[in-house]
Every structure is written in structure tokens, then in C-alpha cells.
Write a structure and sequence with these properties.
single chain; about 240 residues; mainly alpha; two-stranded antiparallel sheet; 10 helices; 6 strands; about 55% helix; coiled coil; YkgJ family cysteine cluster protein; Puta_zinc/iron-chelating_dom
């Protein structure tokens, strides 16, 4: 029988990380330096750097886990966290959409049809729950979670993300190291861990790259810097893809 870490053990390991682990920021900035020099269109540079920065967040989490010998208990088909609200800025939403547009035709078409069905089924509920004020209501996550509305990109038949490699930072950095039953039995499990602080390195590098492109006079499909400061629920951003 598998023995999971206890909540206290996870807390102890997280404290160890805070004391002895240093985030490798250079990894993030090397990506934008590389793409600044690439012979490619602005759109290609933006989408590629976006995807590589997202992967670097995941790689940094792997390094942290190895440092304190933690192994996530999240498994394929476990999707309880895919019912939480996800807030991203318009720049990230546009980059996600562009990345999805570059998926193979069959996969892209599957997502398109899925979103048509999704908004037909959940559209009215989304209209209600996205009125929750995520900036002022400290309990908005619980209220949203209680609606049991899945993420627009969750295939509820397989419980898999349909755009896994470009999933946003909140999805990417939310992890469980204890018994997975805690996620199943609790709307807001206290046992889970968020590495969302890595958003600082990811967005810092991404924003610096967009500043570079802005000064070069071509930010492609991004309205920079306005898109950085416009935030909304992912469920609202993806409406325009169905």
C-alpha cells in the first residue's frame, strides 16, 4: 500500500525549500534572449517563447521536488482542481489561443467542437459565476468551486486537459503530495501546495520580451502593454474560440 506524505511532512519540506532553494531566474531570461535573436516572425517568437517559459516553470518545479524528495500524487484522470476559477491576463489568453491554433488540425477541431458543446451546456452558469469579484471577494474561489463547472478545456469523459502543454500557471503550479483522497473529499483541500510564486519569473521574462518587441515596433497580435493589465476568467476568454 502506497504511503503518502502527511500534511505536516509537506509543510516541513516546503519550509526547507524556502530556506535553501534558489530559483534559477537565468533559465527564464535565456529563453527570451534566444528568441530575440531568432530569424522568425514576431508571432512565432511570441508563441514559442510563451510555451518555453511555461515549460520552464514546470521544470523548475521538478527541480524543487528533487531537492527535497517530494513526488506529486496527482495522476492522469485526476481532475478535481479543474473546477477552480482560473484568472489570467489578456496577453496570456491571446497567447494560449494562438498556441492552440497551431495544434494539428484534428486536435484543433476537437477542441473547437468541445467548446461549442461546453458553452451551450454551461454558458448560463458561467454568466453567473464570472460575476464573482475575484479582486474583492476573498471567498470567490469557494463560491466558484461550489458551482461544479469544469474548466472549458477539461474533457470530462477522460478527465484530461485538451491543451495540457499550454495550461496556465495556476493549473501548472497547483499540486498535491498527500493522499489524493483529500482532493476528492474537500472543495478546498488545505493539503495542496501552490508554486504560483513562479509566476513572477515567468511573467517578468515574458513582459521583458514584449517590451523588446514593442520597442522594435511589432508586437503582432498583442496590444502591449494594455493586454497585460486586463484580467478575466479563463472561461470568459475562451468564449471567442467556440
Amino acid at each position: 500500500m502506497k504511503q503518502f506524505l502527511t500534511f505536516e511532512e509537506v509543510q516541513d519540506k516546503c519550509n526547507q525549500l524556502m530556506e535553501r532553494y534558489e530559483i534559477d531566474e537565468e533559465k527564464f531570461y535565456k529563453i527570451i534572449e534566444k528568441w530575440a535573436e531568432e530569424d522568425a516572425t514576431a508571432e512565432e517568437k511570441i508563441v514559442a517563447s510563451f510555451q518555453e517559459l511555461l515549460q520552464t516553470v514546470s521544470d523548475e518545479m521538478d527541480s524543487m521536488e528533487a531537492n527535497v524528495k517530494m513526488e506529486a500524487t496527482c495522476r492522469l484522470g485526476c481532475a478535481f482542481c479543474c473546477y477552480f476559477p482560473i484568472i489570467i491576463n489578456e496577453m496570456e489568453a491571446k497567447m494560449m489561443k494562438k498556441a492552440i491554433e497551431r495544434f494539428p488540425q484534428e486536435r484543433k477541431q476537437k477542441i473547437h467542437l468541445h467548446l461549442l458543446d461546453y458553452y451551450e451546456k454551461y454558458g448560463s452558469k458561467i454568466d453567473q459565476i464570472t460575476t464573482l469579484n475575484y479582486e474583492e471577494d476573498d471567498d470567490f474561489k469557494r463560491k466558484y468551486r461550489k458551482s461544479f463547472v469544469p474548466c472549458p478545456l477539461l474533457d470530462t469523459e477522460t478527465n484530461q486537459c485538451m491543451a495540457y502543454e499550454v495550461r496556465p500557471i495556476p493549473c501548472r503550479t497547483y499540486v498535491n503530495y498527500t493522499d489524493p483522497a483529500f482532493c476528492e473529499e474537500n472543495l478546498m483541500p488545505k493539503e495542496t501546495v501552490s508554486f504560483e510564486f513562479l509566476y513572477e519569473q515567468y511573467m517578468g521574462a515574458l513582459n521583458e520580451f514584449m517590451q523588446f518587441l514593442y520597442e522594435e515596433g511589432n508586437t503582432a497580435f498583442i496590444n502591449y502593454p494594455d493586454d497585460v493589465y486586463t484580467h478575466d476568467y479563463l472561461a470568459n476568454w475562451l468564449r471567442t474560440m467556440n
